[in-house]
Amino acid sequence: MYVMKVFALIMAGGSGTRMGVAKAKQSLELSGKKIFRITVDKFNLFDCIDGIVFVGRKEDIDEYTAELENMEKVVEIVEGGNTRSESVYNGLKALEKFSPQIVAVHDAVRPFVEETSVKQSIDAAYKYGAAVVAVPAVDTVALTDNGFVEEVLKRDALRNLQTPQTFRYDLLKESYERAFKDGKIYTDDTGCVFTSGIKIKIIEGSKSNIKITEPLDMIKAESLYRV
Question: pTM higher than 0.85 for the full model?
Answer without folding.
Answer: yes
